[in-house]
Design goal:
Pfam families: LptD_2. It comes from Chryseobacterium herbae. This is LPS assembly protein LptD. InterPro entries: LptD, LptD_2. This protein is mainly β. It has six helices and 53 strands. The strands form six sheets. The chain has a 26-stranded antiparallel beta barrel. β29 (about 380-390) and β30 (about 395-410) form a beta hairpin. The longest helix has 30 residues, at about 5-30.
C-alpha cells in the first residue's frame, strides 16, 4: 500500500471526526437557545454560567459520620469502610465503641462486633451510647436511613434492673422487641460484681416501650429462675413499669400445706391503682381440698387530710371428705374498715373508725394463714368503734358521738351501742383566786361534769337489726359531777377533799321472782322510765418520808435510800338499798327468804351501791434504791433499784355489820440486771379465818381476825436477752485482714480460710404464775413460760420463732418457727406452725427491688404504708 494512499485515508478520517464534533456543538448551541424548564430539586444551576448544569444525588446521611480506629481501611469500589482495634463511630446522638466496625454506604448499614479471643468468643462487648444511655452487645447492626437496629446478646439497664436478650430489634427510639430475654434486679449482677444473677425472670418475647416520662416492659408468659434453676412460679403475662408512680401488677402468692385443708396458694391476686387517691388489691387463697377465700382491699389517702382501708375476707371452708362423717362446710366472712384523720387537718372536728366484724366461727374456720402466724386465731373477742368528736374555740365543751360493736366468740353474744353521745365540760375552778395564786381549800375547788347518752343491746349475731334486737335495746342517760380540792397542811402534808354525784335515767328496769315450777329465779325486763341519784364523799391525807442508811467507807454498798408515801383516806356513802330511796325491791327466793335486789340490775346505767360505807383506807407506797461502787460508771457509783414500787393497801368499814376489814393487797414492781429483768407481782391476803366443814371444798368466812390466808398471788417476769449483753463485738477487720469477694464481702477469713462474723441473737423470756383461792379449799393455778427469739446463723441466714409451754398441763401451746434467707436481690421466708389446731407451713419469695413493688408485687405494699410512693 502506497504512502500517498495512507495519507488520503487519514485525512478523510480526521475530517469526518471534525464534522461530527461540529454537528454536536451546533446541536448543543441550539438546545441552549431554548427557554429552560423548571429544574428538579437535585439539579444545581451554576451561578457562573447558565449553560452548564450538574445533577447531584441526595445525601444518604442526615449528619456527619465521625470515625476513628487504630486501623482504618476504605474500599472505594464497594463503598465500604473498615475500622479495627479501638474502633469508634459517632453519628448524631449515638456513639458506638467496638473492636471491629464496618460501614456499608450502599446499604446504609453500620455493623459492630466485640473483641474476640482465639476461639472466637466475645470477651469485650460492643458499647453503644445513645441519649446518655449505654447498651452492651456482642454484635450490633444499625441502619442510618431507617434508624432501626438489631443487636445480639444485648444487655440493657433500666432503672433498678437489667435485661439481657439473645436478639434485640430496635424499631425506633421508643420500641424495642427482644427474643429469649432475662430480666433481673440483682445488684451484684448489675454492678458486674458477679457474672451470673441469683434470680431472673425469663420470657421468650419481651417488648420494651419507652416514653418521655416513663418506660415499661410487656411480656407474654414469664417464668422465675433461681440460681438458673426454673421454678413453678409462672405468670401468663407481666407488665413491669419503670416509674416512681404506682402501677398495676400481679400479686405473687406464698405456697405451702395445712393439715386440715391441704396444699394452698395464699395471697394470689392483682393490684390496681385507681386515680390519685385510691388503690385496689384483690387476693385469693386457694386450697386443694376445696376451700377458697377472696380478700379485696381498698386503700385511700388524701395528704394532710385523712387515710383509710377497707378490707374483707369472704370464703368457704371445706374439711373432711364429702360423704363421710367428718365432712363439714362453713361459710365465713370478715369486714374491716379503718379511717384516720390527720391531726392537723381540723382540730375542732375529728373522725376515726376502727371497724372489724367477723362471723362467729371465723377464726375457727380461718383461710387466711396470716391470722395463724400472728396468733389472731386465738382471739376470743372482736371490737369495733366509730367516733366523731366536736370541739369549740370559745366554749369549754367537747361533744363525742360514737357507735361500738363487741363480739364475744365464747358466748356468741354481740353487744351493740348505737348511738352513744358524751358531752364533757372542761374542768373549771368554782371560785376565782384573789391574789393570782390559788391558796386554801375554797380557791382550789375544781368541778368536772358531763353527760353520757347510750343505747345498748346484747343480742345474738343472727338477731342484729331485727325486731328481737330492738326489743332488747336499752337507753340510758348518766350525769356525773365531781368536786375536788386540796391544800397543804403543816408544810409536809397534802389534804384533799372530793365529792361525787351520779344521776341516771333508763328506759327499762328489772323485776325478779322465783318460779317454783322451774325452780329458778326469773328476771323480767320491764319497759318503764326510772332513775336514781347517788353521792359519796372522801377525804385523804398524804405525805412523803425519806430515809437513808449509809455504810462505812470502802464497802461495796455505799447507801440504801428508802422513800415512803403513806396516805389515809375516809370514804362515806349512804345505804341506797334502804326502802326510802326505792332503788331496791325484795322477792322470796327458793328457801323462802326475803331477798333484796336492785331494779337497775342488768341495766345499762349500773346499780346504786347497797349498805352504808364509812371506810377508813390506807395505802403505803415504797421506793427502795441502793448505791454501789461501779467501775463502768464515770461517777464511780451506780444506782440499783431494789423496788421501784412496793405498796400495801386496805380499808376498814366502820359501818359494816360484819367483816369490816377488807382483803389486804400488796403490789410490787422492780427491775434487775440493768433494767433487763422486769418483775411484777401482787398478793392478796384475807385477814379472816375460813372454816371448812368435813369433806367440803367451799369454806365459810368467819369473823375471826388475824389469820391472813393467801387468796391470790401473781408474778410476771420478762427478760430480754441478746448477744450484745454478753460481750463486745469483735473487730474482724483488724484481727483477720483477708476479706471475701462478691457475696462473701461481709466475711473475714483466717489463715485456714475459715469465715468469721458476728452471730447476733435475741431471746425474750416471759413467765407467768397465777394462783387464786378465795374461799375454796383447793386453789387454781396458771403457769406458763414463753420464749420469743431469733438468731443469725450467718449474715444471710436468720431463724426466728416463739413458743409457750403450760407448766400445769405440761403441754406446748402456740409454737411458730420461721426461717429466712437473704439471697442478694430477694429473700426466702418459711414459716411453720407444727403444733396445735392449725398445723401449717408457708413458703414465700420476696423481691427487694422497689421497681417490682407494684408490678410483680412480691413486696405487699401500697401507698398507705410507710415510705411508699404516692
Amino acid at each position: 500500500m502506497s504512502l500517498n494512499y495512507i495519507e488520503q485515508k487519514l485525512a478523510k478520517t480526521v475530517l469526518k471526526n471534525i464534522l461530527q464534533i461540529l454537528i454536536i456543538l451546533i446541536f448543543n448551541n441550539f438546545l441552549a437557545q431554548k427557554t429552560p424548564e423548571k429544574l428538579p430539586k437535585n439539579v444545581v444551576n451554576d451561578t457562573i454560567s447558565k449553560k452548564d448544569t450538574i445533577v447531584v444525588k441526595k445525601e444518604s446521611l442526615d449528619d456527619i459520620l465521625h470515625t476513628k480506629a487504630d486501623d482504618q481501611r476504605r474500599d472505594v469500589p464497594k463503598k465500604m469502610t473498615f475500622l479495627n482495634k479501638n474502633a469508634q463511630v459517632k453519628y448524631q446522638d449515638m456513639q458506638i465503641d467496638a473492636d471491629y466496625i464496618s460501614i456499608d454506604d450502599n446499604k446504609n448499614l453500620i455493623y459492630a462486633r466485640g473483641k474476640q479471643d482465639s476461639l472466637g468468643k466475645i470477651i469485650e462487648p460492643v458499647i453503644t451510647t445513645q441519649a446518655g444511655k449505654k447498651y452492651e452487645t456482642n454484635e450490633f447492626s444499625y441502619n442510618t436511613k431507617t434508624k432501626q437496629a438489631i443487636a445480639f446478646n444485648a444487655r440493657t439497664e433500666e432503672n433498678e434492673g437489667v435485661i439481657t436478650a439473645q436478639k434485640t430489634k430496635k424499631y425506633n427510639d421508643s420500641v424495642f422487641a427482644m427474643k429469649n430475654a432475662d430480666y433481673t434486679t440483682d445488684e451484684y449482677y448489675i454492678k458486674k460484681k458477679d457474672t451470673a444473677s441469683d434470680y431472673f425472670m425469663r420470657a421468650s418475647n419481651i417488648k420494651l416501650i419507652k416514653t418521655k416520662n416513663k418506660s415499661q416492659i410487656v411480656t407474654g408468659p414469664i417464668q422465675m429462675y433461681i440460681e438458673k434453676v426454673p421454678t413453678p412460679l409462672i405468670l401468663p403475662f407481666a407488665i413491669l413499669p419503670f416509674s416512681d408512680k404506682r402501677a398495676a401488677g400481679i400479686l405473687i402468692p406464698s405456697f405451702g400445706e395445712r393439715e386440715d385443708v391441704g396444699f394452698f396458694l395464699n395471697g394470689l391476686g392483682y393490684y390496681q391503682p385507681i386515680g390519685e387517691h385510691f388503690d385496689l388489691k384483690v387476693l385469693a387463697d386457694i386450697y386443694t381440698k376445696g376451700s377458697w377465700n377472696i380478700r379485696p382491699q381498698m386503700n385511700y389517702l388524701k395528704k394532710y387530710r385523712y387515710s383509710g382501708t377497707f378490707t374483707a375476707d369472704v370464703g368457704t371452708m371445706v374439711r373432711g371428705i364429702k360423704g363421710l362423717d367428718d365432712y363439714n362446710k362453713n361459710s365465713t366472712y370478715r369486714i374491716a374498715w379503718t379511717h384516720t384523720q390527720d391531726s392537723k387537718s381540723n382540730p375542732f372536728l375529728t373522725f376515726s373508725a376502727s371497724v372489724d366484724i367477723v362471723s362467729t366461727k371465723f377464726y375457727n374456720n380461718n383461710l387466711n394463714n396470716n391470722y395463724i402466724f400472728n396468733q389472731n386465731v386465738l382471739n376470743t373477742q372482736q371490737n369495733s368503734a366509730v367516733t366523731i368528736t366536736k370541739r369549740f374555740l370559745k366554749l369549754p365543751i367537747t361533744i363525742t358521738g360514737s357507735a361500738s360493736y363487741a363480739q364475744n366468740f365464747a358466748t356468741g353474744l354481740a353487744d351493740l351501742r348505737l348511738p352513744q353521745m358524751n358531752v364533757a365540760i372542761n374542768q373549771f375552778y368554782l371560785f376565782k383566786s384573789k391574789t393570782g395564786v390559788r391558796q386554801g381549800l375554797l380557791e382550789n375547788i375544781t368541778v368536772n361534769t358531763g353527760f353520757n347518752l347510750t343505747n345498748f343491746a346484747s343480742t345474738q349475731e343472727n338477731e342484729l337489726f331485727t325486731k328481737a334486737m330492738w326489743d332488747k335495746m336499752q337507753t340510758g342517760l348518766k350525769n356525773n359531777i365531781a368536786l375536788g380540792t386540796n391544800t397543804t397542811v403543816a408544810k409536809y402534808f397534802t389534804f384533799s377533799l372530793s365529792a361525787n354525784i351520779d344521776n341516771a335515767l333508763t328506759t327499762k328496769t328489772l323485776k325478779r321472782r322465783y318460779d317454783p315450777i322451774k325452780t329458778v329465779d326469773v328476771d323480767e325486763i320491764q319497759k318503764n322510765i326510772a332513775g336514781y341519784s347517788t353521792f359519796s364523799t372522801s377525804a385523804s391525807l398524804q405525805t412523803t418520808l425519806y430515809g437513808m442508811l449509809k455504810f462505812k467507807k470502802g464497802s461495796a454498798v455505799e447507801a440504801i435510800r428508802h422513800m415512803m408515801t403513806p396516805s389515809l383516806s375516809f370514804t362515806y356513802s349512804p345505804d341506797f338499798s334502804s326502802p326510802g330511796f326505792g332503788y331496791y325491791k325484795n322477792y322470796y327466793n327458793a328457801e323462802g327468804a326475803l331477798t333484796p335486789y336492785s331494779i337497775f340490775d342488768k341495766g345499762i346505767v349500773g346499780s346504786p351501791s347497797s349498805g352504808v360505807v364509812g371506810a377508813l383506807g390506807f395505802n403505803i407506797g415504797n421506793n427502795i434504791e441502793m448505791k454501789v461502787k461501779s467501775k463502768s460508771d464515770s461517777t464511780g457509783v451506780k444506782k440499783i433499784k431494789i423496788f421501784e414500787s412496793l405498796s400495801l393497801s386496805g380499808n376498814y368499814n366502820f359501818a359494816a355489820k360484819d367483816h369490816p376489814w377488807s382483803v389486804f393487797s400488796i403490789n410490787g414492781q422492780s427491775s434487775f440486771f440493768n433494767n433487763k429483768l422486769s418483775v411484777n407481782t401482787s398478793l392478796s391476803l384475807d385477814p379472816y379465818r375460813i372454816d371448812f366443814a368435813p369433806g367440803a371444798t367451799q369454806g365459810i368466812r368467819t369473823e375471826e381476825f388475824g389469820h391472813f390466808s393467801v387468796q391470790g398471788f401473781n408474778v410476771q417476769l420478762s427478760y430480754p436477752l441478746s448477744s450484745e449483753i454478753f460481750g463486745e463485738k469483735t473487730d474482724y477487720a483488724k484481727k483477720y485482714p483477708a476479706k471475701g469477694e462478691v457475696r462473701n464481702e461481709n466475711y473475714y477469713f483466717d489463715d485456714d480460710n475459715y469465715a468469721h462474723f458476728d452471730q447476733a441473737w435475741t431471746l425474750n423470756i416471759n413467765a407467768n404464775y397465777a394462783y387464786s383461792k378465795g374461799t375454796s379449799l383447793l386453789g387454781t393455778k396458771i403457769a406458763s413460760v414463753g420464749l420469743d427469739g431469733s438468731i443469725k446463723l450467718t449474715p444471710y441466714w436468720n431463724i426466728n420463732g416463739s413458743t409457750h409451754f403450760d407448766l400445769v398441763t405440761k403441754d406446748l401451746a402456740y409454737t411458730r418457727i420461721g426461717f429466712s434467707r437473704d439471697q442478694r436481690s430477694f429473700t426466702i421466708n418459711f414459716n411453720w406452725v407444727p403444733f396445735g389446731q392449725y398445723k401449717v407451713y408457708d413458703f414465700f419469695i420476696g423481691i427487694k427491688a422497689n421497681i417490682l413493688s407494684d408490678a410483680l408485687k412480691y413486696k405487699d405494699r401500697s401507698f398507705t404504708q410507710p415510705n411508699a410512693p404516692f
